[in-house]
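User: Second chain of the day. Same drill as before.
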Amino acid sequence: MINLFHKVCDSNVPTEELLEHIQITHTNINDKPKIIDILANCFDITPNEVKHQFNVINVDFENSVKVCDDRTGDIYGILILCHFNIINGSPILNYYPQLGNILGELKQINGHSFIIDKRLRGLGVDKKMISHCQDFVSQFQFIWCGVENSLKSNHYWERLGFVECLSIDNAKFYIKSTKV
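Assistant: Same format as last time:
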């Protein structure tokens, strides 16, 4: 069960002040401990479980994106991109083997985690984060993500142009072509 608590960063900075001092930039390997803590809290798992996932999904720290306070370096949002094939990260081969085989052959990137502090939601920060990695993502034929059904964000991905390619009991999987 994902727990997207109200604040990604446990600070009491008001939204207006935070907006004046946020910057959107790429993550780097030095951000790994903070990102592990954020994901462990959001996914309600241990930091060691996050580390294990990172080893499996091949996180691209140089091209993932963060929102941080330019004064403190506190992270208020992350968009984690991984080199993780859809046929390894979803049960698509079980349900649609032909589609899975086709998608498995295409050059792809996975949007593993997209988390934004509640204080920054609805203010366009998400779109700025996506724009920040657009050049990198456009090198791939498609981007995909899996979303737990318990989250309200399923329609969010559709609004961004993603298409549902698989729905199972506890999750939906979306893809979006990066070629216009």
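DSSP finds nine helices and seven strands in the chain.

User: Great, on to the next one.
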